[in-house]
Design a protein that fits this description.
By secondary structure, the protein is an alpha+beta fold. The protein has one helix at about 75-90; strands at about 5, 10-15, 20-25, 30-35, 35-40, 45, 55-60, 65-70.
């Protein structure tokens, strides 16, 4: 669990964090997740829904947030295998039924 402090109007983008929670520890945050805009204030949290990157913008000076429930990504050959399987899973087309 890592806390991140952002100056006002700064933007950060998170990728591959589906299911994790963004918890606003201080200030105010504006999130865009899966096409939805969400505003969080102190003590509020949001569970990341989409497969796409989540954009977080700090709306107040020195807003702080943390991510809970983040899955550690494997490194080395295991990380490459994980990425390849994730890519196959997200790009696979449904089978047509005759």
């Amino acid at each position: 669990m890592k806390t991140t402090t952002r100056p006002s109007r700064s933007v950060i983008q998170l990728t591959e964090q589906q299911g994790a929670f963004i918890v606003c520890e201080e200030g105010q945050l504006w999130l865009t997740d899966n096409g939805d805009d969400i505003v969080l204030t102190h003590g509020e949290r949001h569970q990341i829904q989409g497969q796409q990157a989540v954009v977080i913008e700090s709306l107040r000076l020195n807003s702080r947030f943390r991510l809970d429930g983040v899955q550690e990504q494997p490194t080395g050959w295991l990380g490459k295998l994980h990425s390849a399987l994730h890519h196959l899973h997200t790009t696979r087309q449904p089978h047509a039924h005759a």
